[in-house]
């Protein structure tokens, strides 16, 4: 992840996600359609869900302890 977008605290993760989506959409001129993440609470807040709905972004939550549903990076950990 870009150094300028890393959250200093867990509470900043929501703002970081929003900035990252905006940066990706600006840099690549494509709309983010899907976000896939683990089941951590900071990724599923009510305001983030509203943001995803407003931006028409599908939210996919991976199943805990089912590493085959995660990307290659997560499976290596």
TrEMBL record:
<dbReference type="GO" id="GO:0003676">
    <property type="term" value="F:nucleic acid binding"/>
</dbReference>
<dbReference type="InterPro" id="IPR012337">
    <property type="entry name" value="RNaseH-like_sf"/>
</dbReference>
<dbReference type="InterPro" id="IPR036397">
    <property type="entry name" value="RNaseH_sf"/>
</dbReference>
<protein>
    <recommendedName>
        <fullName>Integrase catalytic domain-containing protein</fullName>
    </recommendedName>
</protein>
<dbReference type="InterPro" id="IPR039537">
    <property type="entry name" value="Retrotran_Ty1/copia-like"/>
</dbReference>
């Amino acid at each position: 992840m870009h150094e300028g977008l890393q959250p200093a605290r867990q509470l900043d993760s929501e703002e970081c996600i929003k900035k990252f989506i905006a940066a990706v959409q600006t840099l690549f001129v494509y709309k983010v359609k899907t976000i896939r993440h683990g089941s951590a609470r900071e990724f599923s807040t009510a305001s983030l869900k509203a943001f995803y709905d407003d931006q028409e972004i599908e939210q996919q939550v991976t199943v805990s302890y089912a590493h085959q549903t995660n990307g290659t990076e997560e499976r290596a950990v």
